[in-house]
C-alpha cells in the first residue's frame, strides 16, 4: 500500500510465485519485486520462470529476504538482481529504496547505450 500511496508505483501483488508467473505477462512490469521465500516456489525459481515469458527476460528485479547474508546477496546479484532489501523493512522507506535501485539501473543502461553507439 505504501508503494502506491507514497511511491506512486502501480502494483500487481501476487500471493505466490505461481500466481506471479500466471499474471506478470499481462501486467507488463517495469520492475519485479520478489520475496525470496514464497509459497509454491521460492523467489529464484519464480524469477527463472518469469524470465521464460516474452518481454520479461530483461526486466530488472529486486529481492526481499529475511535471510540476508553476503553469500545470498551475491548469488542473487549474479542471477541479475539489482539489489536485495533486508526484512523486516520500513514500508515508508521502501519506495525510496526502489527508486534508488531503479535509478542505478537506468544509469547503467544509459551508459551501455552510449558505449554501444
Automatic annotation (TrEMBL):
The modification 4-aspartylphosphate is found at residue 35. Its EC number is 3.1.4.52. Keywords: Hydrolase, Phosphoprotein. GO terms for molecular function: cyclic-guanylate-specific phosphodiesterase activity. Pfam families: Response_reg (PF00072). The gene is rpfG. The keyword Lyase does not apply. One of its GO terms (biological process) is phosphorelay signal transduction system. It comes from Roseovarius tolerans. InterPro entries: Bact_response_regulator, CheY-like_superfamily, Sig_transdc_resp-reg_receiver. This is Cyclic di-GMP phosphodiesterase response regulator RpfG. Residues 1-102 form the Response regulatory domain. Signal peptide: none annotated. It is an enzyme of class 3 (hydrolase).
Amino acid at each position: 500500500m505504501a508503494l502506491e500511496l507514497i511511491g506512486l508505483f502501480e502494483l500487481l501483488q501476487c500471493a505466490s510465485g505461481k500466481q506471479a508467473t500466471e499474471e506478470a505477462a499481462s501486467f507488463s512490469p517495469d520492475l519485479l519485486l520478489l520475496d525470496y521465500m514464497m509459497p509454491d516456489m521460492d523467489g529464484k525459481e519464480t524469477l527463472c520462470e518469469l524470465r521464460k515469458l516474452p518481454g520479461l527476460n530483461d526486466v530488472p528485479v529486486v529481492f526481499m529476504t529475511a535471510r540476508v547474508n553476503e553469500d545470498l546477496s551475491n548469488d542473487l546479484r549474479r542471477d541479475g538482481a539489482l539489489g536485495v532489501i533486508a526484512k523486516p523493512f520500513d514500508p515508508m522507506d521502501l519506495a525510496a529504496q526502489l527508486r534508488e535501485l531503479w535509478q542505478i539501473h537506468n544509469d547503467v543502461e544509459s551508459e551501455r547505450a552510449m558505449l554501444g553507439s
